[in-house]
């Protein structure tokens, strides 16, 4: 794989972060507008037999809804963006440790940060037998490396240093900030989609009336509602895929290379990945968004058709390919 320097990777991630910040509001506002057009047609406010489709009602409603949508999403984003560290900590049950509480882990992190000249991040521990680790945070104050107790018990010092080096490289490359932005946006999109679909479904079930003409009109409205739901669901799914692909799987290879360089032993990191891949894992409390941060995504530990399909749309390359890459150093 072509070598990419740390500053090139940082610049690339900054561009992707800016793209997501522009792309997401645009797509969300487009979905709101389509939803209003469909509602106007269903309520006969946006359609007449003489003139056909009339967008004036949808335009008026969109202008009224615009500040609420933008304001609501902005508030949600700001809160999630600056509170992501505490949210992740609460979701995973992790807690911060000091040198006195865990000198082995603390010394490994400190030595690696001194080697690459980066500020010391916070160190969190998750009390679970699963073998995994992840980096998180958006700035120097919030950058955190989280390691499970199962991982510390299973790996020797060299292997653990390789894993920590991998996570520190994610921080240095600003991968964590890009991931946090993506996770927040996908969460907002998922919630908005859920609300819209529930509103459409409720209208489908309870929007009818007793007259024959009204029943006929309601059947037409039901068809439109299902079309709108299908279109919105498809666009939401496409957006999720776009954010996943924006977080290129190349970042994991870059982090592996950085981790191998920091610890000075590529085979140690390869050995750690091999041990992790041999143990079952799951998203913490079913949180797929948190699982995206893991050094090995839980989906990559499944087998058969499930593994093949998930790898197609995963933010992580297969563990086997990563091990082969490290063994080539």
Describe this structure in words.
By secondary structure, the chain is of the alpha+beta class. Helix content is 68%, strand content 6%. It is elongated and about 70 Å long.
Helicity level = 55-70%
Q: Tell me the span between the first and last alpha carbons.
A: 11 Å
Query: Shape from CA axes?
Result: elongated
- Summing up helix and strand content along with how strands pair, one would put the structural category as alpha+beta
> Runs with pLDDT <50, length 5+?
208-213, 300-310
Sheet having the most strands: 4 strands, mixed
Q: Quick check: average pLDDT?
A: 76
Q: What is the rounded Rg?
A: 24 Å
Q: Regarding quaternary structure, how should these chains be classified?
A: single chain
SSE order, as H and E? HEEHHEHEEEHHHHHHHHH
Strand order of the largest sheet: 3-4-6-5
Per DSSP, what share of the residues sits in E-state strands of 2 or more residues? 5-15%
Helix tally? 13
Number-wise, the strands total 6
Give a nutshell description of this structure:
The chain has 329 residues and is α+β, with helices and mostly antiparallel strands.
Write out key terms for the chains shown.
alpha+beta, 329 residues, single chain, four-stranded mixed β-sheet, 6 strands
């Amino acid at each position: 794989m072509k070598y990419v320097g740390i500053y090139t990777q940082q610049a690339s991630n900054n561009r992707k972060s800016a793209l997501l910040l522009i792309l997401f509001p645009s797509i969300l506002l487009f979905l709101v507008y389509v939803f209003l057009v469909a509602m106007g047609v269903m309520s006969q406010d946006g359609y007449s037999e003489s003139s056909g489709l009339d967008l004036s009602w949808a335009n008026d409603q969109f202008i009224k809804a615009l500040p609420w949508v933008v304001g609501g999403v902005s508030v949600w984003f700001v809160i999630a963006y600056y509170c992501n560290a505490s949210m992740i900590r609460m979701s995973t049950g992790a807690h911060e440790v000091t040198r006195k509480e865990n000198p082995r882990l603390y010394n490994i992190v400190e030595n690696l940060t001194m080697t690459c000249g980066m500020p010391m991040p916070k160190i969190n521990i998750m009390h679970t037998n699963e073998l995994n680790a992840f980096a998180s945070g958006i700035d120097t104050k919030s950058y955190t490396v989280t390691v499970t107790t199962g991982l510390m018990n299973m790996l020797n010092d060299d292997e653990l240093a390789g894993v920590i080096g991998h996570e520190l490289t994610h921080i240095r490359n600003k991968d964590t900030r890009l991931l946090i932005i993506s996770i927040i946006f996908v969460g907002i999109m998922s919630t908005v989609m859920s609300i819209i679909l529930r509103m459409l479904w409720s209208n489908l079930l309870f929007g009818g009336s007793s007259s024959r003409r009204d029943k006929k009109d309601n059947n037409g409205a039901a068809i439109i509602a299902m079309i709108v739901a299908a279109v919105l669901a498809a666009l939401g799914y496409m957006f999720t895929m776009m954010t996943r692909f924006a977080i290129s799987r190349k970042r994991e290879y870059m982090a592996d290379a950085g981790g191998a360089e920091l610890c000075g032993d590529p085979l140690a990191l390869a050995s750690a990945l091999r041990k992790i891949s041999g143990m079952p894992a799951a998203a913490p409390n079913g949180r797929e968004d948190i699982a995206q941060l893991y050094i090995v995504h839980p989906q990559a530990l499944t087998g058969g058709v499930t593994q093949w399909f998930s790898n197609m749309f995963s933010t992580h390359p297969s563990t086997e390919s990563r091990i082969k890459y490290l063994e080539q150093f």
